[in-house]
Amino acid sequence: MSGEMAGFVKKGDPSGAPQTRDHEYFPIIQGTKFISQFYRLFKGTTLYDRNNKTIDLMARECLQVVNPYVVSENHLNLKIVRENFFFNSIRIPVQADKYALFKNFSQEMTKRWIGELEFTAELEPKTLKEFVFLLSGLEENNESNYLYIQQQLESQGIQSIRVGKTEFFQEKNLMPNHQDQTQPAKAVYFRSINLVKEVAEGIKTQKVINIRKAKHLMQDAVSSIIRDESSMLGLASIKNYDEYTFNHCVNVAIYAIALGQRIGIPKMILSHLGMAGLFHDIGKIKIPPEILNKKEKLLPEEWTVIRSHPVIGVEIIIQMKEWGELSTRMIGATFDHHLKYDLTGYPKLSRKRDLTLFGKVVALADFYDALVRPRVYRKFPYVSEKILGLMLEHAGKDFDPALVKVFINMIGIFPIGTMVLLNTNEMGIVLQTEEDPDLIDRPRVCLLQYSDGEYRKGKMVDLREMDDESRTFKRAIVKTLDPNEYNLNVAELLI
Length: 495
Ligand SMILES: [Fe+2]
Ligand SMILES: [Fe+2]
Fold this sequence. Notes:
Elements: H1 3-6, H2 25-47, H3 53-73, E1 76-81, E2 84-87, E3 90-91, H4 99-111, E4 114-119, H5 125-136, H6 145-155, E5 161-165, H7 182-204, H8 211-227, H9 229-236, H10 244-262, H11 267-278, H12 289-292, H13 300-306, H14 309-319, H15 327-336, H16 357-372, H17 384-394, H18 401-411, E6 419-422, E7 427-432, E8 444-451, E9 454-462, E10 477-481, H19 490-494
Antiparallel strand pairs: 1-2, 1-4, 2-3, 4-5, 6-7, 6-10, 7-8, 8-9
The structure holds fe (ii) ion (FE2) (2 copies).
């Protein structure tokens, strides 16, 4: 038994738990319940045959935990790494009276080389029962068991269950560590970039595209943003010439999810919004790269080609059946993202109609990301203040004015990644913005130290900090600086 598992938590009646959702407490209780119920059902398969009433009852009881959890959190994931249980990435401390149960369960799973279970939609008792029989019937010591299960599930048309192979090393992002929350955000970010590449390649070569993977990733992105918005926004502010297209898609998804969260879109729909953001420009894959990347001014006929990307995008989405219930929302965002609030954009509509909410959100996210980052034909990005000013100017014409307000508030006047000069003559990079509108100009800043010919990360300061004697703020921002002038790669400092 590893030392981790020996750390018991005090026993308590789970039903006596507070109803309020403490973000750590809730998964621990639900996770413990799930592990217990699921293991009971698992053991049940060795005692009863599949038509036995007791097994039915056990499956139903287990689903009383699974289904509500999946509805509220989008997915239920259980990972077992060397006898440690992670329930939606939160480690479940083992209770004294559950010690044997946890240990047995983990041994049974490890024998079968299954280290992960995931449910992504509500299940019928019959489906769960079949799955558990499949699991318990696996042969021992077969490393590819997870592939067999996956295949069986697919052949039965079950998309809401996924299993993974046993891993013996803990991924960093499984350990909830408040000091290091950029880790999971970073992983989600870079995985998303690779995924967009894969999908773009897949469409070009007409291969089957793994939409489920994209959905999972966007669910992870939603959780990451809810947990720690600034890490994700920080990643989105990184500027990269080489991978502009892919970065752009992921950034739009991040800004869209973050904005969606602030206007109260439910979690489940937020991941759809992420998907819509990720693929809003999918039509561009059919546009010749010489036009897309042209540095000189575009000719009128080239503009016409560029402007066809929303319609081409919609065609691509319609052709792909894999999107499922998502496709209507995706079509909204893809078609509407250049239409503009007053419908003067493109494609031209034959009849006036309201923009879709997804279209409006993605349009803002798209505009901000397109201007904040360098493009082949524009060497330096606009500074954010200017873009936010442009957004305000265009509110009501290009953008929904209510959304513009929320967006500006979210980005802040000194967005993450902004290089600033302080009244103490120190220079720094904004790493975390301040929620309180009265303190919006007082973010947390990482000071820059100049040594050996380059700027390095120095200490972190909070601009809300006051001097005890004078009762004035210790530091204040004097102005923003252009990192290009200082040969500074902000991305390196942020990651
Ligand atoms: Fe676009
Ligand atoms: Fe775009």
